[in-house]
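User: two proteins, same treatment. go.

Assistant:
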Amino acid sequence: MNQLSDRVNNLSTSATLAMAAKARELRAEGKDIIGLSLGEPDFNTPDFIKESAIKAVNDNYNSYTPVDGYVDLKNAIIAKFKRDNGLDYTLPQIVVSTGAKQALYNIASVMLNKGDEVILPCPYWVSYSDIVKLNEGVPVEVKTDIDNDFKMTAAQLEAAITPKTKMIWYSSPCNPSGSVYNKAELRALADVLKKYPNIYVVSDEIYEHINFVGGHHSMAQFEDMYDRTITVNGVSKAFAMTGWRIGYIGAADWIARACNKMQGQVTSGANCIAQRAVITALEASPDKISYMVDEFKERRKLILDLLNDVEGFKTNEPEGAFYVFPNVSAYFGKTIKGKTINNASDMSLFLLEEALVATVTGEAFGNPKCIRISYAASQENIKEAIKRIKLALC
């Protein structure tokens, strides 16, 4: 008899983690799987950051940390926001969490009541929808298309707003599409939101530095949106620190205090050694990680050139992150090697079983026509993976 809560019974399994687990199972069976599913840089954490962590161990950082983070880390975050984003925050406005995902969950927990609507431009990061649902909110999907680079327009935002709208959540650069909102596009969205002062914005900027268009813009840069925007960031992607689990927010002090209160009853403060290492990471010039960004840019060109030679894959050029999000709907309804492909999930499973390449279905991101392919992998693996995909679809 299932005595689990309705909450967990109704919860979706993370599609990215599920695909990674399936790929591991096949590898254990001796299959040569190329993993292009996880959003994880294949670089090592830079040595100067690791050395800072080793020093923290030797300096005996081993005690509980403040719930909202060490003061000197919060000061480093404040300086980073000012340097990179032109945003002015104070200590009470910063909360450090165990990864940006916890920061997002904190925000949903303290901001949403039952029935509150949260606008999610599609495609969106896989966990947004379920985090909203877990906190009794209602995700409202706004469909975008590859032809407009998967960006929500001001008109679409206006049309999605109802009296129940409480928040809008988006990422830029976007996971999974790699789309980047420029300043004018954000200003157009802000002009709509000016008319609705009770709607708050979550701006997920975790891929901020993996940006190929030479400029990142934050919604909070606009004076009329500053108090209503919760800026979420972390070190997982740009600094290749996924396992260190440090994320943070900058927000109005009353929101930050509420997140601190919530976190105090769930995990308390984040890992002490990781926090010391993140101080070093954030105080360094972004130039220190430019070699990773340069390599991702080369890989982007490589994978787009290769995918453009795969019949039925429609691509655009993502401006950031390390994903491509091709439309594969040309294959829907077709039978290949005895397997019928009706949707993106079928395509993703087909590629895993027949091409031995792990991708992620776009259905998990709110777009059932696309699949997400990560190019956080070596150029050799990318070449081999797309070669296998092309052969499998013949």
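Protein 2:
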Amino acid sequence: MKFNDLLNSAGIKPEEVCVIRHHTSTRGKRFATLHDLWRGDPHGFERYQSTQKTKRQIFRKRKIWAAFVNPTPDETVFVGLFDAKLADTRKADWLCDYRGNEPGDGKPVDIFATSRRNELSDQIGILHVDWPAENKRTWARRADGLNLPLSTKQFAARIGPLTGEALVDELLDLGFSVTGATKKVKQLRRGELVIYVKREIKTRPLVIHPHYLELAEEFRALGGVDVPSPLKTYKNSNLRAFPAYYTDSRDSEGRHGFAIGIEAPCLRELVDLLDRGTKISTPDGEVRVIAPEDDPFTEYERLQAARVGQGEFRDALMIFWKSVCPVTGIDHAVLLRASHIKPWCEASNAERLDPFNGLLLSAHVDALFDRHLITFGDDGLIKISSMVSIANRARLGLDPTFRISGLNARHLPFLEHHRSRFQP
């Protein structure tokens, strides 16, 4: 079978297609090869591709570009179909994403507006062709004049556990992009899905959102996923897209995720499972994932954790209450807790994410509020349980005249629910 047969079966005429084979013997500034650029920075790759020397008719006249890159000198892999239209001819006002210099050495270039097409998208990173030896130096041809045979070579697939850069490479091939890096972890994203890869530690190197703890048995069922038993969270302050937690032992917030190991043959299936779990349905529509109530932290840490995906709930409360506890006036961020009024275990998914089901409370007030030893009236006035002794009230600085100012009408139904659990 030939590549043009695939184009015809997709309803695309080969005479409308320019076949581009991106390759160069010169190592790039940020990426070693153009294959690396495509995997590591898809936006940069498409911008690199869209900038061409002026008056090249093969690019100007062909409405569709079929792009290929070379992972190795004898390997040519398909990376997508693009609509292409000349947008401007001028000096580019950016640096080349591959070479790091000015495109066209600072001279005017043809700049094309390109957009990815859906046809053959299931073949991206998978389909290989045999580029003719007599055309090895040629990198742009008319598809109808270069009928590329599909490769019959068997490129070796990875086997065994994936770690470090090998895991990153496989994720890039699955459409992820590297969106951040520290000495300890790399952050990768594909759409809504954010994951981390430990850079030096080989034990369970893939770190996912703690929400996925509840899918642990489904991971084990894949057969090639190393899930800790008993389940436990992985703590690392570099996991900036994951929920926060606070403890007495640290001055700043920490972050936590769920670390697992993965065998190469199972990676695609695992990613598909993660994709299906990135959102949950609520009566108000889909929202991003949240961490489970019964995550395996200590009781103290669990009560303190920001339990909504990516800290959105805490962030909303910090904004609404201007980063100040409305009861005590404390404004030291690490001492403030995002407290649900209607408890997490009793709230719907929509209520768990509703900032009006929350108060920004200092740590000791949060502990009392969480255990229904204090509550608040609709006028904001504090009510203190008789179970808190007079001596402890004094030690805690509880004043019966404390009042929350700034309550919204939307807080009141949640406060009414909280008062129904209050221990007088």
